[in-house]
Amino acid sequence: QVQLVESGGGLLQAGGSLTLSCAASGRNFNRCAMAWFRQAPGKEREFVAAISWSGGNRNYADSVKGRVTISKDNAKNTVYLRIDSLKPEDTAVYYCAARLTSLSDVYFVTVGPYDYWGQGTQVTVSS
Predict the structure, then answer these.
(1) pLDDT per residue over 30-57, tens digit each?
(2) DSSP 3-state of 61
């Protein structure tokens, strides 16, 4: 069992940066592929970034590539998402997700494979 709690959202201006954190509890965090998704009002939840539990493999959505960095600190049981050059279209609720896997270098870019989700943190970017 893995519990996830996101933090770091808020109201920001376009062009700025922020770092979201996802604190995980539970014994299996270090064997979880992790990801960030986001959901804007009236839209489906969409993939943002993913990282394997080894940390060796990462993947980013084309819409954010070059502006987003996902990282994890196994010692702190935390996954981070840094977003630079914020745009109004980044406005959404951001969710952290985890999938327990025996494969150290895999990640998943769709909602379905993830077993655990946080409650989300709101990010609002003003122009």
Answers:
(1) 899 999 999 999 999 999 999 999 999 9
(2) coil
Amino acid making up residue 51: I
Task: Tell me how far the alpha carbon of residue 38 is from its chain's centroid.
Answer: 8
Neighbours of 82 (CB within 10 A): 15
What is d(CA 78, CA 25) in angstroms, rounded to the nearest whole number? 9
In the three-class reduction of DSSP (H, G, I as helix; E, B as strand; rest coil), residue 30 is classed as helix
Measured in degrees and rounded to the nearest 5, phi and psi for residue 59 equal -145, 145
Q: State how far the Cα of 50 lies from the Cα of 27, in Å rounded to an integer.
A: 20
Residue 123 CB partners (closer than 8 Å, separation 6+): 9, 10, 12, 18, 20, 38, 83, 90, 91, 92, 93, 94
Which CA distances in Å does 110 have to 15, 16, 27, 44, 77? 28, 28, 24, 12, 22
DSSP 26: S
